[in-house]
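Re: the multi-chain job from yesterday

Posting the exact lines I submitted so nobody has to dig through the queue logs.
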Amino acid sequence: MMVATHHALLLAAALFAIGLLGVLVRRNIIYTLMCVEIMMNAAGLAFVAAGSRWAQPDGQAFFIFILTVAAAEVAVGLALVLQIHHRLHTLDNDSTSSMRG
Amino acid sequence: MTLVFYLASFVALVSTALVVISRNPVHSLLYLVVSLLAVAMAFFSLGAHFAALLEVIVYAGAIMVLFVYMIMMLNLGQRAVDQERNVLPAGIWIGPAILAGLLAIELGYVLIRGDVTPVVQGNVVGPKEVGIALLDKYYLAVEVGSMLLLAGMVAAFHLGKRDLPDEAAERGSR
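And the result, structure tokens for all chains:
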């Protein structure tokens, strides 16, 4: 028995929705970063599902690019979180809503 | 393989929901690792073996270690020492362990049956095809990706310093 491709796409959409909900609901910067990771992962799942539906390598190639972007994003994001914690002594999203100058 | 896909999807959905629901970052991190492993299993059942491999090695292996490092570095001071005692009591492992156990059962099932036919139409797309596509069709994007990683490394190194230039100047003028 074959699984229809749209079941994999539905899984990707559900994971993306959970990640989006997390970004909107949680007020901790670490959670925001984690939920962005979940959303990127869901996008990669959609790419891979479509790629394997037509037996083309492009889906997996784009998954590798998503992996690259996620790694760079996490490295910069975590450095920013360390700076925010060092300066403001909090991890609240709303604490960084004001700029200086 | 159909059963493998649906069970992996179930584990992925449950553990991802628990990532958002958990109150403690360490617990969320555990569930996030399980979620990534479940998505890797779904990749495998879809016939994308190379992507499943990379998901385990890079995502669950390297990126999650970055998160662990950050949580370690942020928990400084006496408050964190007190917190440490309550962070990982024995019972916490049960939830992620059950979900990861489901994935381990799936893995054993696949290994014993030796059946790797993808659950969707089409054939297995192996690393060879992906490598050829990357360095033939998308070689420019690979170069841009390497530049992005270099820029990310430089930015993380700069931002990770204790005193950024503006802060040091501010302290000097005070």
